[in-house]
Every structure is written in C-alpha cells, then in structure tokens.
Amino acid sequence: MNHLFEILTLLVPVLLADIALAAAAVRHIMRHPCYRFGSRAVWLVIVIVLLLFGPIIYFVFGKGESE
Fold first, then answer.
1. Taking 90 as the threshold, does the pLDDT of residue 64 lie above it?
2. Averaged confidence pLDDT in the chain
3. 8 partner at 20 to 30 Å CA-CA among 32, 35, 40, 54?
4. Furthest-apart CA pair in the chain: how many Å?
5. Which three-class secondary structure state does DSSP give residue 62?
6. How does pLDDT run across 28-56, given as a tens digit for each residue?
C-alpha cells in the first residue's frame, strides 16, 4: 500500500502539468487560425485523444510561425 502512495505522489504533478499543457494547447488552437500542418479540427483531435503527447506534438509541429 505504501508503494501505491509513492507512485501517486509522482503521478499527480505530472498529470496536472499534462492537463494544463493540454488546456493551453486547446486555447491556442481555438484562438489562432494558422498552423504549419493540418487544420484546427485535426489538431483538436490530436491534442484531446493523445492527451499525454498531443499538446507536445502540437507545440513542436503544429503551432504556426506568425503569432
């Protein structure tokens, strides 16, 4: 049981950071019309379905150059 609490204390901050990053990605997708690859709908699906890596993929490959 003690091992479970050790794992949870590591996972909770990671999950909170991931949710915050996903929220930032969705907010950016909804506010900006231009993307390097794909469209708004494609990036929303990627960010939401691939919750762990989707926002990172968006900020590396999808975010448009002109802000």
1. no
2. 87
3. 54
4. 51
5. helix
6. 999 988 888 888 999 999 999 998 899 99
Q: Is residue 31 part of a domain?
A: yes
Residue 27 has pLDDT above 90, yes or no: yes
Residue owning tokens 């950016």: 28
Spatial neighbors of 2 by CB under 8 A, at least 6 apart, are none
What's the total number of domains in the chain?
1
HSE value, Cβ hemisphere, 13 Å, CA-based, for 44:
9
- 28 belongs to a structural domain: yes
Q: Is residue 19 in some structural domain?
A: yes
Please, which pLDDT band fits residue 65 given cuts at 50, 70 and 90? low
In which domain, by residue range, is 35 found?
2-62
CA–CA distance, 64 with 43 (Å, rounded to integer): 12
CA dihedral (45, 13, 56, 19) in degrees, to 10, reads 30
